[in-house]
Amino acid sequence: MRAIVIDDERLARKELITLLNQLESVDVVGEAVNVDDAKDKIEQLNPDVIFLDIQMPEKTGFELLEELDNVPHVIFTTAYDEYALKAFQVNALDYLLKPIEPKRLEEAITKLQGKIDGYTKSEESLSVHSQKKLTLEDQVFVKDGDRCWFVRLSNVRLFESDGNYIKVYFDNFKPMIHKSLNALDERLDEKSFFRASRKHIINLGWVEGIEPWFNGGLVVTLRGGDRIEVSRRQAARFKEMMSL
Which residues of 55-89 are buried (b: 16+ CB within 10 A; e: fewer)? Predict the structure, then answer.
């Protein structure tokens, strides 16, 4: 697996890279010293996992995750116990307390390898061939106050524009991210997500019912009960995509 180590402390980076280089399953493809550096490295190198320090100057590890369109697997590294609980709250793959013990690192890598192996070959193929688009197998990081989530896009049923933010519908949650719906629409795989109107993007896998609406439009019912209007302008394209 391809890994990037992100930490503002040079010694901490070097120590972790030395430990990772002793593991046959890990290939350290890069390192970064802050959030901006990390964003560039992640976009260029497309890692499977990032080892992410939480507290860094100017911007934190959580702020980095908020700025990424597609979030790789994350293993937090921290010297502060107070952040460990927060790492669990964001449903991170794992967290490592500094100084990092080789055995704990191996456990984290084994856990990650099991998660990666759990993907089917078709899912892996889809991800490889759609790197420029966000597929159902990709995950995003969503933060709402002190609560944070890593959300797989297959679990997101609806995106709703709300001013300069987007409301993300998954499970019983509707947190907001600071992005535009137009920008998100350009990144999403059109085979899985459909721009129903200026305000909504729906996950086609969550469509449960379709019915005619005023002026040639449609109303789509999603699993869970959300009812979304498909504009007349988009209705014909939606019927074509759904083979109606």
Answer: ebeeebbbebbbbbebbbbbbbbbeeeebbebbee
Report pTM.
Answer: 0.77
**What's the pLDDT at 215?**
81
Residue 157: strand, helix, or coil = strand
The answer to whether the CB of 199 falls within 8 A of the CB of 181 is: yes
State the pLDDT confidence band at 147, using cuts at 50, 70 and 90.
confident
Q: Which domains, ranges and CATH numbers included, belong to the chain?
A: 2-118 (3.40.50.2300), 131-241 (2.40.50.1020)
Contact 210, 199 (CB under 8 A): no
Separation between Cα atoms, residue 48 and residue 123, nearest integer Å: 14
Per this entry, what is the length of the chain?
244
- Asked if 72 contacts 45 with a C-beta cutoff of 8 angstroms, the reply is no
- Alpha carbons 212 and 152: distance in angstroms, whole number: 31
Whether the CB-CB separation of 96 and 49 falls below 8 Å is answered with no
Question: Residue 54 pairs with which residues in a beta bridge?
Answer: none
Q: What is the Cα–Cα distance from 229 to 54, expressed in whole angstroms?
A: 41
CA–CA gap between residue 195 and residue 45 (Å, rounded): 30
Structure tokens given for 12: 């901490």
**Three-state DSSP class for 225?**
coil
In the DSSP assignment, the letter for residue 70 is: S
